[in-house]
Design a protein that fits this description.
2 domains, about 150 residues, single chain, 3-stranded antiparallel beta sheet, about 20% strand, two-stranded antiparallel sheet, alpha+beta
């Protein structure tokens, strides 16, 4: 399952000293309180760098929108996905896009989740085979992997 957001525009702006960085770290379900507090610090830190644009956190938070820790207490914090399962087993809303609704005015409230099981006619077992490698490999190979598993 992959969150999808529909809006007027989508762009990526380098946020810190002209650099955009990405780290392929899997969050630890036992460390969510500490990790969400750290993400709150990062979120606030980027906002205070003077960047005149949106700050958006996205990924697997290992918590739903009702349990975001200190991150959820930041002023204006909003979630693109709410009340819709995002995991392969369709029972948790862990993947999300988190942003400040006061400054991310392009978000029109429309969002959804791409369900790979339904989209490609996969079983839960086939989808679980795709889930872990997808996190590590990225979405570039997802279509080919879905076709391969479905056959």
């Amino acid at each position: 399952m992959i969150p999808a957001v529909l809006g007027k525009r989508i762009k990526i702006i380098p946020a810190i000293h002209g650099k955009l960085t990405s780290e392929g770290k899997v969050s630890d379900p036992d460390e969510t309180d500490m990790e969400l507090d750290a993400l709150a610090d990062v979120f606030e830190g980027i906002q205070h760098t003077g960047v005149d644009d949106d700050v958006i956190l996205l990924g697997d938070l290992n918590v739903d929108e009702h349990h975001p820790g200190r991150l959820g207490q930041l002023p204006g914090i909003a979630y693109a996905i709410s009340g819709v399962p995002t995991n392969t087993r369709r029972d948790k809303t862990y993947d999300n896009l988190v942003f400040d609704a006061r400054t991310t005015v392009e978000f029109n409230g429309r969002s959804g989740v791409l369900d790979f099981m339904a989209e490609f006619g996969l079983t839960e077992e086939q989808s679980l085979l795709l889930a872990a490698p997808a996190t590590q490999q990225g979405a570039a190979n997802m279509r080919a992997r879905c076709a391969q598993v479905a056959t």
